[in-house]
Structure formats: C-alpha cells, structure tokens
Amino acid sequence: MAAAESPYTRHPSAETTTEALLADAFVRALANADIEHRAVDGLGVASFTLAPDHVADLAWRLGIRARWLMEDTNGGASALNMLQHAVRAVEAGDARTIVLLAGDHFEPGSFRKLVDSYNRATQQYLASIPTGGPNALFALLTQRHMTEHGLTREDYGRLVIAQRAWAAINSRAVYREPITMDQYLAAPVVADPLHRYDCVPVVSGADALVVAEAPSGVAVRSIQALHNGDAQEGDGLQTALKLVADDLWARAGFGSGDVHAAYVYDDYPAMALIQLDDLGLIPEHDVARFLRESELPINTSGGQLSAGQAGAAGGMHGLVEAVTQLLDPTGPRGVGAQRAVVAGYGMVLYRYGACANAAVLEKR
Amino acid sequence: MCERCGIGKEVSFSLTACANCGHPVFPPRALCPVCGRGDWTSLEATEGRAEAVTIADGVAIAEIKTDVGPVVVARVTAVVSVGDRVRLSNINDVASAKASRVYN
Fold it and tell me: In this structure, which long-range contacts are made by residues B32-41, counting pairs with CB atoms below 8 Å and at least 24 apart in sequence?
C-alpha cells in the first residue's frame, strides 16, 4: 500500500474543483508508490461533491482503464469500506493495482445544503426543527456520554489538546497552534456542551491510497464492519465496532494492546473516545483515566479536529496517516509504529452514525 | 399555520409500530428490524423523558425517550431540562416537546 494527501485548505482558490483535488491526490499516491499511471487498473472514490460525475466519469478523467470500480457514499466509513472491497479484489485477482480516492471541495453554502439533505431521515425529521447539521445531534450525544462516563469538559479537552500537539508538527494541518486547557474551555459554544475546538474545520482536500500486492509495505491483517448494527435504536454511546472487535483482533492475530498507534474517526471528541473504547483500547473502560494516563499515539496527524475534514476524505485521512507512519516509522511525526488500528464511522442517520468499520494494519 | 398569530397546527405525536410483532420505530421505515414484515400501525407517543437538551443556532433541541420506546429528536417549545417529563406533539410536521410539569 501507499498513501498520499493533497494539501487541505480552509480557503480554496476560486478555481478549485473536486476533480482536480482527487487527481492531485492520485498523482501524489502514484509517486509515493513508485508505480506508473498505466499500472492502475482499479478505482474507488468517495466524494460528496463529485456529482453529477460518478466513478466511471472519474476513471475517464484520470485516464484509467479499470477492471474494478467502486463509488462509496458512506461518509466517514467510506475509506475502510472501499479498502475492504479493494483488498478482496486484489486477493482474488480482479485487479492488480487499485487506487482509492476520497475528497471534496465545498463551495460556500453547499456544505449546509449537504447536511440538511443528507438523507431522508434528516430531510423529513431534522431539517425542519432545524437541527442545522450534526453538531446539535452530537452535542446531545456528548451530553449523555459525559453523564455515562462521569466526564468533564476538561477530559475531552485532553484529547483535543493532544491532537493539536500532533498537528503542531504536521505542516499540512490547517490548525497547528497549540491550545491550552484554558483556551479549550473558553472557546465559543457551538451547541452545549460542544465548543469550537470540539468541531472539525471543514476544508477542501483529498486523500489517496494505493492497494496492490507487494512483497513488502503495509499488510491489512484484518478488516471488520458492521452497519446498522443496532437498527439505530440504541443510544449511540457505543458503535457497532464493539460487536466486531473480538473478530477484528482474532483475525489480526494479535490484540488491542499490541498496536503502536490508533486512528479513530474524530468528527467529535466523544466519538473518538467511543471508538477507542469499542476497539478495546481503553483499559477497564475508564475513559477519564485513559485520557490522563495513556501514552498511546492517537490520530498522529492531529486528526480531523486539527488537520481538517475534507468532506468524504475524513474517513481516509486516518488511514493515510496510519499507512504513512507504518511505511516510515522514523519520519517527521514517526512513532516507530509497526502495527496500527484504523476505525471508520459515518452516515449520521437520525441521531448518530449507522456505519462502523475498522482495519488492523501491520508493517511487513 | 394560523396566518394571523403564526401558531402552528398542533396534533399529538405518533409513530409507527409493526402490525405483526408490535415493535415501535421512529423514523418510519419499510420493514420491521425485528421480524422483517412491512405492515405498520399508528401508535401515539405523546409522553416521554428528555434525555439531553442543547441549543444550536438559537434553536432548543432535545432527545426525547418516548414512553413507548423510540427516541425522538424534537424542537423544544417551552423550558425543558434533562430528566424532565415532556409532552410530545407534532406542530406543522415538526416534532415538538414541552415540559409536562404544571407551574403553579
């Protein structure tokens, strides 16, 4: 595998297009993988703003003759969903070199339109309240998470501050200034108890992953997914990862204690913590203690909260960072990782996400 | 909506329950997640408890755990705190909640 990211920006130029961002990430990934354009025979894409184009249009625009195509629409779960299918395709010989792309460029106003018409449940039952997007929904969820785990805002602040510290050494992160706890707590409220630093900066950008058979590099030890695991009738304080985590680690051949870095979908701090817990990374489910004491590197790029959320690329961002770390454990932000776990979460369906997946990666 | 005073058409809040096994759901969907059947009956859900309340862009929004089971996201139309018993209604197709308590 190889990975690349087209630089994220909160202020894209007027000429920016989604297609150009995806193409840029594509070209960077090929360069990182040291493979030629004509070797690519599979393409997957996740993008909210590619429409009316689809993956076949993109294949044409990128000059790819594809034996395998996939377009994924599952938000933060898209990247791992595409990875799941791409790995099987390469294993089965359906394609030899697949490139997975994810990214978005939002014109002013189009992001609000996206969140209001995200799905019919949103259109019919949330847009008219109006909830105004996922912030209100995850504010409600965070309240209940706080109560269930006895957390304070300071606890969430620790995660946010830690990720911002990683972003400080990531030249591509859109927010790199370290934050103090006072600054975190004093930030303007968005929807109680979420304040500014609990919400991701929306950016334009794209990510790319190359999936191919190779004698060395990064191996996918296991992938697990469970979507609509609780029929959306639960409380959202655990994801379906909790139900598949045992299988995930069993198939990987090692346990949650054996990874050197974790990448979770950090649309909100509470969701990052929930995924960490579901994956078995929080000893005794003691979230507050984990936040105070854990030294496990998490979201080493700064995560979406600091590096930015480029729409559908949000789910691929952590995967790209994980692969980058594994391929170059002594790089600029290197943590010497040989093993990592990556989680995806997405498709906010009425109150919380309906999709959850995870992959365990190992350097080979 | 009343053109003069703006008050919306308020009706009791109802959701759907599987006609086969009785499982209630909200939002509605095609097939019952428990038994897989596609026949539904209407079920009133006028009472519940506020599980979380927030304000987003000036709109007070709550999660209401209805007595019949499903959780509904509602606009809060009168002061509601977490833990309050609430009355749930449908005002102009918007789920709306207000505290059930009677103030003296």
Answer: B33/A231, B33/A233, B40/B16, B41/B16, B41/B17
Residue A250 parent element (H or E): helix A241-252
User: End-to-end CA distance of chain A, in Å?
Assistant: 11
The C-alpha of B103 sits at a distance from chain A's nearest C-alpha, in angstroms, of 26
Nearest CA in chain B to A126: B73
CB contact under 8 A, B82 and A192: no
The DSSP letter of residue A37 is G
CA distance A201 to A198: 10
A interface mutation test: which of B18, B54, B72 has the most A CBs within 10 A?
B54
- Full DSSP string of A52-102: T--HHHHHHHHT---SEEEE---GGGHHHHHHHHHHHHHHHTS-SEEEEEE
pTM: predicted TM-score of the whole model, two decimal places = 0.96
- Residue A75 vs residues A105, A176, A183: alpha-carbon distances, Å: 14, 25, 30
> What is the per-residue pLDDT for B104?
34
In B1-58, DSSP assigns E strands to: 10-12, 14-18, 24-25, 40-44, 47-56
Residue A175 vs residues A170, A201, A307: alpha-carbon distances, Å: 9, 8, 6
- Cis previous bond, A178, omega within 30: no
- The radius of gyration computed from the CA coordinates of chain A, to the nearest angstrom, equals 19
Question: Residue range B19-25: average pLDDT?
Answer: 98
At residue A310 the predicted structure's pLDDT band, cuts being 50, 70 and 90, is very high
Phi, psi dihedral angles at A197 (to 5 degrees)? -80, 0
pLDDT at site A179: 97
Q: How confident is the model at residue B6, as a pLDDT?
A: 57
Contact status, residue A244 vs residue A226, Cβ threshold 8 Å: yes
Work out whether strand A68-71 and strand A42-46 pair parallel, antiparallel, or are unpaired.
Answer: parallel
Cα separation of A169 and A299, whole Å? Answer: 12
Complex ipTM value: 0.92
pLDDT of residue B11: 87
Taking the Cβ of residue A108 and every Cβ of chain B, the question of whether any pair is shorter than 8 Å is answered with: no
Strands A339-349 and A352-363, bridge-based pairing: antiparallel
Please give the Cα distance from A9 to A310 (Å, whole number). Answer: 9
